Amino acid sequence: MTVPKNRLALGTSRRRSGESAHGALSTRLRSAILSGTLPPNARLPSARALGLELSLARGTIVGVYERLESEGYLVARGAAGTFVSACLPAGTTPAPSPPKSQGARRASSKLDAAPVARSFQVGVPAVESFPSHIWSRLLARHSRRATARDLARADPCGDPALRGAIAAYLAVSRGVVARPEQVIVTAGYQGALGLLCAAFPGPQHRAWVEEPGYQFTRHALTLAGLRVQPIPVDDEGIAFAGRCSNGPSPDLVFVTASHQMPLGMPLSLARRLSLLAFARARAALIVEDDYDGEFHYASRPLPALASLEPDGPVIYAGTFSKVMFPGLRLGYLVVPEGVRERLERVATLLTPASGFAAQAATADFLGEGHLARHVRRMRRLYAERREALLSALAERASDELLVTPRGGGLLVLARFAPDRQRSDQDVVRRAKALRLSPTPLSVCFSHVPRRGGSGLLLGFAGLHPSRARAEVDRLVSAIVASPLV
Amino acid sequence: MTVPKNRLALGTSRRRSGESAHGALSTRLRSAILSGTLPPNARLPSARALGLELSLARGTIVGVYERLESEGYLVARGAAGTFVSACLPAGTTPAPSPPKSQGARRASSKLDAAPVARSFQVGVPAVESFPSHIWSRLLARHSRRATARDLARADPCGDPALRGAIAAYLAVSRGVVARPEQVIVTAGYQGALGLLCAAFPGPQHRAWVEEPGYQFTRHALTLAGLRVQPIPVDDEGIAFAGRCSNGPSPDLVFVTASHQMPLGMPLSLARRLSLLAFARARAALIVEDDYDGEFHYASRPLPALASLEPDGPVIYAGTFSKVMFPGLRLGYLVVPEGVRERLERVATLLTPASGFAAQAATADFLGEGHLARHVRRMRRLYAERREALLSALAERASDELLVTPRGGGLLVLARFAPDRQRSDQDVVRRAKALRLSPTPLSVCFSHVPRRGGSGLLLGFAGLHPSRARAEVDRLVSAIVASPLV
Questions:
Q1: Which 3 state secondary structure label does DSSP give A454?
Q2: A139, B350: Cβ pair inside 8 Å?
Q3: How far from A359 is each of A140, A350, B35, B347, CA to CA, in Å?
Q4: pTM (2 decimals)?
Q5: A86–B146 C-beta distance less than 8 A
Q6: How many interface pairs between A and B have CB atoms less than 8 angstroms apart?
Q7: What phi and psi, each to the nearest 5 degrees, are found at residue B20?
Q8: Which of B59, B87, B299, B477 could form a disulfide with A148, with the two C-beta atoms 3.0–4.6 Å apart?
Q9: Which residues of B touch A132 (CB under 8 A)?
Q10: Strands (DSSP E) along B56-186, which ranges?
Q11: Which of B359, B362, B366, B305 is nearest to B336 (CA)?
Q12: What is the pLDDT of residues B402-438, one digit of tens each?
């Protein structure tokens, strides 16, 4: 459907003085979209036509469209025009709206009932900004063109086209040079863990994990029965030096080198080099969980650890959950030649890659440059959201929370002020009652320390800048309701 | 594109006497499709129009279309008409054809270069008869309609709609009554094995497998480090009675109850009941690998073992590889309540289900009745192909091979005649040189017995009835070239 121009009328009589035409039109459009007056997929008038209608410069309309596009309300589809996004931003509150038609009510109540992510949730990217129309076109293309060969088999290590596209993407974006055969496609990062645990089964294998670290890795390895040893992290990353001379060698060392999860700093270059030397000396494998290495705001992202040494002792684990969307459930390992056959055999017999259609569509998404464009756009969007969250925290929460901003990632770590220590688990329980979802820092520890173990991980990927202050205010209300300890 | 009626002209002057109009038109159409004269997706004239044109009864044309549809050359799309299949039958030899246009040559050389399955290959269904147009419509529907919620997460145990659809399907088709929460979606049967191996890791867990049995199961469990014990199979199925009184209890007992793989007979009712009692007494779990329980020709399929006892000690493993297509890589486990949480936790942390789109499309494929219709059609098609193979074997290979036909499945087991014993591995090597792919029976044994361990598994799912005799002749030439032992 195409939206009639008169439904976008600014109602100039109601325009408050001092509010710019740009701001007024933006507000009106957002409200019309949230209320369902402009339903998903509706096409907007061209900037020229709407400018003539509203007596505004075409440039003003273009600016408004671009802004709402960056916010996820609108989607530009080239020559086809500009459309209301099929997926509204997560957690938006519908504006008060006049009585709707049945159709509009159904559409909007479906969205109301299904908030995608609560504020501060970690691990869910801004899916409403994902170019679903491109994705759905690629997927439809591959389901239509499926040959009998496509139907008859799926390579358990992944679609060859996707493995090639990943190798090409990594060389450019992360400096990792690998042949397509070294890429094994998995069911996201979890599937990669399953593959590694099947190849290095417990209890005869030993894994080192960062302390604090990504709780999911620790839980999965423990469930699989590996001997899991937490290794403390300092300002330069995993501090394993003390473990070198004594004790049994690890088989796998899991590190988050780009942005340590949850502390945020990168693994220093010196530490990277000594970790590589250690792994070679002990015949251990480093597993580099590069969960959001693409997102770096202050400077260029650091190259991956796996890029430092050709065919070094590093298994690189990547995922499309953050850079595309989690529901895709696709990830990959880039494996050194020495363990390739072993891992291929495990993939074939126990942890095969998923069906061909989504893989083939993902290969095109990479190969046609959509992923690189999307990551560039998201880097700008996340930089804005991070900035808005940091400002709001500084402005509204500085009595309670101390934040040391890091250069990358999709979350901010906030610690409680020294004289205002609280149980992070208790704060999070209270926040959840307000429909906020911060993550307690303490879950990242296997043994929570007395000092420095309490804090909040605040995801900002889904946090709209215009709501940052209000959401921080609500978070502060949950914090101050929690007793001091 | 629509095919002009004159391109289907029968060339009556060249029609050999004695050949029926039905036969002549069928032959002409097959040859036109194989040569690329009728390209994939071309729409055929209506039966009425073509009948008028060729001065044949409409009923004759309808009969020819139906026959070619059942053979996989044509696809009926309801009111839209009849179309050339987008995926030509596997392993077809293009008929001699006049010089083609560039486009047609490209299309056909692509198919020539990609034979889907060689004759006698086990495990690949007749994918050319799969209704790809329905599948691609369903997949496109779900990729277009993806909500932000769909993008943001995928349930690691499987899409709720698919779990519900599987539960409903199993109740009708296999007598298995389960709640949707008991269904866990996996990456095919291999993924189900990966999930079970992660939940019952080696070496502290023990698995019994059938001897002979499905080699894939044995290899996967061995790779995962479980203690694997082969249990002999007799005419009634797994003969575990001798193991009851002594020796350690198994944790998992893998059985192919519908059609024993590779011998073909069902697990007898008496044996089913005693196996259930044994499992209860020893706190073991039976894993019922129902790999092709849908395909039974002589009578109604036996209900699944899992249907005998509500919430009994049975994990039911099903797959869509045979009833839909292997490239989908979707399977499932139906799990008893007692182990549900344990398996859910493993699925979440180590072996999550794949992305949502293919799962949602599969849910609709089941829910809208397409799967039941497709299985009914395939049962007829496979019955014909099995009959053709059995006739050809009786007619052309009875000196060399002994066949005891069983009531179901997608393969025939042929043993060498008593005085004509050969190495099945050697025969298979020679057959592969002729581009035939039988499977040697001996791979199904962990210890190949001196007598009865050699034979050939002949898959018939992709074997066109018209080629059965010729392919059996070629197989016999590979057999007689192999030395007697």
A1: coil
A2: no
A3: 12, 19, 31, 21
A4: 0.77
A5: yes
A6: 219
A7: -70, 160
A8: B87
A9: 146, 151
A10: 74-76, 82-84, 183-186
A11: B305
A12: 998 888 899 999 999 999 999 999 999 999 999 999 9
